[in-house]
Specification:
- The structure is a homodimer.
- By secondary structure, chain A is an alpha/beta fold.
- Chain A has 12 helices and 15 strands.
- In chain A, the strands form 4 sheets. Chain A has a 5-stranded mixed β-sheet with strand order 6-5-4-7-8, sandwiched between helices.
- In chain A, helix 1 packs across helix 3, helix 2 crosses helix 3 and helix 6 packs across helix 12.
- Chain A is globular and about 65 Å long.
- Chains A and B meet through helix 1, strand 10, strand 12, strand 13 and helix 10 of A and helix 1, strand 10, strand 12, strand 13 and helix 10 of B.
- The structure holds a DNA duplex.
DNA sequence: GAGTTAACTCAACAATATTGAGCTTTCAAG
DNA sequence: CTTGAAAGCTCAATATTGTTGAGTTAACTC
């Protein structure tokens, strides 16, 4: 699928208003609780303009009043915060054999989730599953349909006919139709599509570790391994939506150069376990195997260390992020082990004297990361100002 | 130096106007010649709005009328194009021993250039040199001072106290003052600062090979080697302005892993030549040595091949650019040789079936690349809409 | 208790873009 | 050759939105 960058760029009263609305909403989200005067100062708008938009947001139930805050002299400022029930985002992760879905509220809390096996891997089966899941989640959570802000879809990349397609990630059922438009029509909702790593990266900003960060890189353990890079609060998607294909970069391993994915990925781990006759299906399985200090797993961890260090070093030097986050479909225990065992090189732009936080963080983990990420895409969009710089 | 992302985000009538002005200016630049109706359609503004802004731009001499274009039925549209003499950009490249400078007009043509040795490597000497160069260039080109849009400054990175500082790139004279503010005051001009690779990347967009591209990566041969990544027409500068430090990423070389810079950079080449007692100072020297098929040079080229392939492969897979551009302080001949000899891996997101142009391009080369890039930063800024997405 | 500070509202105002009517110029069909 | 359609453009009226400044309220300070 081709990413169409924003084309409409001219500003008029209406677009300025919706832009300002998003700006204010985002300000409220990042601040947690904040008053009108504060918002005005930090956005460069007049109090009056903020007041008008706040009134709008209140009547749309996107925000709620939170009492007054006495600071010092003067009239105590009325505080506002996001209204969790003001909007909901549907997240959908499409896999070859099943569809996962979750519903998040405006604050990023999971309200409901559901999984459904696919009876066939074709477009109709997927469409039907997605529609059913939407209805099931709405019903289970007693959410009125008109409170749905949109749907985020996660599908494995890469998008389009690139040199790194292979049988494991391919989803040829969308060959002749743009999946975003198709699903938007089927769900009767606005739709955003991203790959798993990008969605997970955005999720981290909405609910997780990256909430204070504007520029960071997320290394995502899916089946393979992916990178979601966020720069100045914007996703780096690449010219064709395939940026962050970190799995295929060459890293030093055992004296020669190997693709990162072959050393550091769920796939490589499960393959290694399989060779020893150990079956591991779920994140929980892996967690148990780690707890038992299973030898193959420990060996895999050791082999993964150097290649992962090299990859992180590359990411740091190319993106200069505030932090690198490790997350995805792995148990906490394994991610934590990796983070503990890695020694990041001193020769890196990220090794700053004025650094406050750690260079490496653990992000959201577990099987649902990408699904939650899908929903987070929608929430993120709700908070992203519309008049973007010309692309 | 810390990059301050745009903070002002709220839109009002005035900001919307200046935003639209930049949008239209950029549209004219990319189109070359274009009429009002066309601009209106491609920006989502009304003809009337475009007309008003065009009138403004005409009276500011930023654009000029270019006759009428008869297409089919209807009133032939009046065409507009940039007015080269409507504005000028000063580019300054600060080196430890000298300052290079150039003056570009709005269309990116070089109007004048000048070099000046530094009598000392301290702040006052630099300030004095920069002021003198500004005046010399204005006088030589008979440009009135009020037509200067601003100054772009290029200094070698990385900025701030990072783990990769070393004696060769360090510029400690700015330790206690923000160089952008200092120089802005000294020059009485708005100032933009970037490292050499980033500036060169932007220059390519304004005048060079990348004029049609929105997402591309520029590998820059300075003293070392740097990367300037442009994503959706925006520079990826990183959280602290140090993104693109590609010189320090590990690449496979001679069976082991080496920093790219040690294999592929001007520095490494000059060092290799020096070991054989061959002195090479300038780009022209290198060109002559290449023409003479000097053996050390040819050996260096061969050794550079694999590491460079690995680096480009990494860049492609992480950024998914439309193209990778090679340029900088090297002669055309050597850059072309490298481009000819490189074999890019098929396993890359950039190996697309629908690809039209080549994956690898040669950019601007020669000693002045960074200086011209510095000026291009200013021109770029002139065309970049002001209401940016919240950072 | 008087003065100060700060948040907030109201009403008048200003900046900008949009809309629709009308003019002009070109092409094409009869 | 005439007429009508199509497209670019201008003018004047209108709409949307944000800003400004005066006035109100509520807290703190002396």
């Amino acid at each position: 699928m081709i990413k169409t960058s924003d084309i409409v760029v001219g500003a008029n009263a209406g677009r300025a208003r919706s832009h300002n609305r998003q700006v204010i909403l985002d300000r409220i989200r990042t601040a947690g609780r904040i008053g009108r005067a504060d918002i005005a100062r930090s956005t460069g708008l007049s109090t009056q303009a903020v007041s008008n938009i706040i009134a709008d947001l209140l009547s749309d139930r996107m925000i709620a009043e939170q009492g007054r805050q006495v600071v010092g002299r003067g009239l105590p400022a009325v505080q506002y915060a996001l209204n969790a029930k003001g909007g909901f985002a549907l997240g959908v992760e499409i896999r070859p054999d099943a569809v996962f879905s979750a519903l998040l509220n405006l604050c990023g809390d999971k309200v409901a989730s559901e999984r459904m096996s696919l009876r066939a891997n074709d477009r109709n089966a997927v469409t039907e599953a997605v529609r059913t899941l939407r209805d099931t989640l709405l019903k289970a959570s007693k959410t009125p349909k008109n409170r749905l802000l949109g749907a985020g879809i996660v599908m494995p990349g890469p998008f389009g006919e690139t040199g790194i397609r292979d049988g494991e990630t391919e989803l040829p059922i969308w060959a002749d139709v743009a999946p975003d438009r198709w699903l938007s029509k089927a769900l009767e909702l606005p739709v955003v599509i991203e790959n798993d790593a990008n969605a997970a990266a955005i999720a981290e900003r909405i609910v997780g570790t990256a909430s204070g960060l504007k520029t960071y890189a997320y290394i995502y353990f899916g089946n393979g391994i992916g990178l979601g890079a966020v720069h100045g609060a914007r996703l780096i998607a690449g010219a064709y939506g395939n940026a962050g294909e970190i799995g295929h970069i060459p890293v030093p391993a055992a004296g020669k150069s190997m693709p990162l994915e072959s050393m550091v990925s769920r796939m490589s781990l499960i393959r290694a376990l399989g060779k020893e006759g150990i079956a591991a299906e779920s994140v929980d399985d892996l967690d148990r195997l780690y707890a038992a200090k299973t030898q193959v797993l420990m060996a895999w961890l050791e082999n993964a260390q150097k290649p992962l260090e090299a990859a992180i070093s590359i990411v740091e030097n190319l993106f200069d992020p505030e932090a690198v986050i490790l997350g995805g479909a792995m148990p906490d225990s394994i991610l934590d082990h990796l983070i503990r065992s890695l020694t990041l090189p001193d020769k890196s732009v990220s090794n700053r004297e004025d650094r406050t936080g750690p260079r490496l963080l653990r992000g959201t983990s577990g099987r649902m990361t990408a699904t939650l990420g899908a929903a987070a895409l929608v929430i993120n969009q709700t908070f992203t100002p519309k008049i973007a710089a010309q692309a």
